[in-house]
Amino acid sequence: MALEVRPMWEGSFGAEISGFDMTRETGQEDWRRLVGASHTHGVIRLRGQKADPAALLRLASRFGTPVPHILTHFHVEGHSAVLKLSNIVTDGKQWGIYDGANYWHTDMAFEDPPGAATIVYALKTPRQGGATRVADMYAAYDELPDAMKKRIDGLVVLHHYGNRDDLDENSTGSASKLTDEQKKQVRNVFHRLVRPHPVAGRKALYGVSGSSFGIVGMPDDEAIDLLNELKAHATQERYVRELEYGPGDIAVWDTSCTLHAATPLAPVDSPDDPMARLLHRVSVKGRSPLFS
Ligand SMILES: [Fe+2]
Fold first, then answer.
1. 2 CA distance to ligand 1 centroid (A)?
2. DSSP characters over 193-210
3. Bridge-partner residues for 215, per DSSP?
4. Are 133 and 263 in contact (CB under 8 A)?
5. Which residues form the TauD/TfdA-like domain (predicted)?
6. Residues 273-282: what's their mean pLDDT?
7. How far is the CA of 147 from the centre of ligand 1 (A)?
């Protein structure tokens, strides 16, 4: 069956990939089309796959270099680059992160080099809800007034772990709580505000929400006002889509040209609860070896 790339929604944002089967050999040209689609369309989805953590890592490594996440306590055992996301809590123990990403953010923008893509594999999905909201940062940049484009081109943004809109680590709207050891590893990094996609070259607004805390050479209040203005622009309904998945689906969002936010789900006390969610997630950095 030939690999096909079709629009997932209206316009060029999002692509549905069909004719792909994780359990079969995929040729180099098809891999390039699949990974290239994530650079061009920002989000791709592959329905009905079978992926154990090792297979998921092999797929992820086509998009970049898988990296262990700072939240070491939610790694899949034996696979430090596979992170569990879940709303299941049994005997007081969380199965994965469930409260950390309900706000607009860019995965691993708080690192240097930053994340390149996030790959999610759905093992359990709730009967309803639980979609990831994704926003198109190519379109958000393209549609800025020329004066704003001029003002922000060349600006450099300070990022570190956290959500600038909610710094209370016990709040559900803040970034996931770090252990004291993890807090010691947090550092400041810098990324361009208008950042050309590392492979596709197209300009996108980068990291305007979440881990961005300041702009180099600009007073803090002015910088936050500007970041907030850009965030309000970039998360308008016309740039936002709901990325839904069922069990077996793999979704990839390219972090260079998207913002995303999880939809909150209430905790459940059993993996058999119809509202239970369990996802495996891999973040990659650097360039895809197919485009290096
Ligand atoms: Fe995220």
1. 31
2. SEEE-TTT--EEE---SS
3. 157
4. yes
5. 10-281
6. 96
7. 31
Strands 203-205 and 93-94: unpaired
Ligand 1 midpoint to CA 174 (Å): 12
Region of residue 184 (phi > 0: left; psi between -120 and 50: alpha; otherwise: beta): alpha
- Distance (Å) from CA 246 to ligand 1 centroid: 18
Distance 107 CA to ligand 1 centre (A): 5
How many Å lie between the centroid of ligand 1 and the Cα of residue 146?
30
Domains contained in the chain, CATH given: 4-285 (3.60.130.10)
The per-residue pLDDT for 100 is 56
Confidence of residue 170 (pLDDT cuts 50, 70, 90): confident
DSSP string of 251-265, one letter each residue: EEEETTSEEEEEPP-
Ligand 1 center–CA 283 separation, angstroms = 9
